[in-house]
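B., you asked whether I could sanity-check this one before it goes into the benchmark set. Here's the sequence:
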Amino acid sequence: MRRVFLIYSIILSSFASAECYELNYSDCLYWSAYCEWNEDTGQCQNIGGGSGGGDENAYGPYTTGILTESDGLRNGPDYDYARLYYPINANYPYKSIIMTPGWGDDGSYLSVWGEFLASYGFIAMIIGPNDPINDDHQVRGQGLIDAMETIRQENYRMGSPIYELIDIQSFSVGGYSMGGGAAQAAAMLDNSIKAIISLNPTLFVYDTINCDAPYYYCLIPEHLDHSVPTLIFAGQTELNEMGQDYDGFLGQTIYEFIPNTTDKILFEVANQGHGAAAEPEGEIADIIIDWFNYQVLDDALSCNELLSVPSNASQYLINIDCIDEILGDINGDSFVNIQDIILTVNYVLSGEYSNSADFNSDGNIDILDIVQLVNIILN
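And here's what the prediction gave me:
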């Protein structure tokens, strides 16, 4: 009996080390307790479209697909392990978020973030460093920049399920641990980046002028002098867990050194260490979606959500001022009138999407939204 149990345990552990998207049709049906076959993408996925990690309730309304280099995705020279997650039948053009992992990880650990972000209508590309052990923060940051070019090319690759559905001007970056610091390095290389999420970041910058010999790694405000809006998660007990060698190189210091003229938030999670924001769960997941909705999709209501202090925060520092939104003011001229109705009708006719015109928040702009706008004007 023990032998049967051992064999069964080995089988289960083998499945746990894989993911549903790696299974063929027959194996997907075999693991139907965990996976389901998506007829739209011709791929296996976790039940409900989620990855099975983190909080199941955190996932958004869209099912997701995945592309790899074997599907035709570009093989960028500055990174490894490319996985591009995309939403199915979401509002396009899709905005992109690229994430890179912590030390020693090839990127596979971040798959839960790829599916999570794609389920809310974003393209989420997960990459790994070429050398997970020796690549420093700056090299990993260059990998994030290189991945932007991969997504641009995917927009023009005929046969791609996201062919001509991508906003090639909108890229955000993020990562966990070293990856969170790499996102800051990427912002120093490219100030067109829309937003950053740094999940329990570390950051050491190689600087032969300002840093001491023999290693020339340090962190000073000049290393973070960028204007890219940044959301940082840190753990209250993180320094105790990591050791004094990390004093001055974690999320709290990164937040302090980013200019006050840059939109920034520090969410220090109470009684948590370096894994405080490792997975998209609870208030962490909620704040990240509000952050991208505000910074990338210009959703003013999400800005107001960000002002609320999370219940599990030991510190919550924020320098953002939200502009009060006038309900129905689609064109932002501080008036609600026939011009807003015309703009909403144009959205309906063109199939374009704007959060400000989606009055019933159903993900579509249609006659129901026009009726609500007319009622606002009449009242």
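One thing to flag: The first helix runs from residue 2 to 17. Otherwise nothing jumped out at me.
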